[in-house]
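hey
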């Protein structure tokens, strides 16, 4: 029996969209950026949180294949701690805002095809850190998580 237009069932093929995430404690980014970019690109990582960057201040840079957002200690302090997010250029247009909360916490907001996504990058304090430092860190982290949950 011949098929007519009403008999044909069309299957719409939904394309899988997979975003690859990674983290890396780089133990100072100053002379390793090329190596880091090479490795995360080789591993097909779309978004990477880098910790212990030891980069001072806050800012962002376009590094060709990736955008680099970072938050570290103030310029007058000795280099230490630091956290950053690298985003592949194919996701660049989805990044709406970013904020360096502290030298240990960074946040980026994205809107990907109608879905809101917040990435919080964290370089946690050591267990042997002073109690006051730990309390401050966890309070800041908790505040950011609560803020993220309240956004609509």
């Amino acid at each position: 029996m011949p098929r007519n237009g009403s008999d044909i069932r069309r299957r719409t093929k939904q394309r899988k969209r997979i975003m690859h995430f990674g983290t890396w404690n780089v133990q100072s980014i100053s002379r390793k950026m090329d190596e880091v970019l090479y490795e995360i690109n080789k591993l097909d990582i779309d978004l990477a949180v880098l910790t212990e960057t030891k980069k001072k201040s806050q800012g962002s840079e376009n590094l060709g294949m990736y955008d680099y957002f970072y938050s570290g200690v103030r310029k007058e302090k000795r280099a230490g701690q630091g956290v950053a997010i690298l985003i592949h250029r194919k996701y660049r247009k989805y990044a709406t805002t970013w904020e360096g909360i502290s030298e240990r916490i960074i946040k980026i907001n994205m809107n990907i095809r109608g879905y809101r996504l917040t990435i919080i990058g964290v370089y946690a304090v050591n267990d042997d850190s002073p109690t006051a430092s730990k309390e401050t860190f966890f309070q800041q982290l908790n505040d950011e998580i609560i803020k993220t949950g309240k956004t609509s």
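The helical segments are 33-42, 131-150. The two ends are 54 Å apart (CA to CA).
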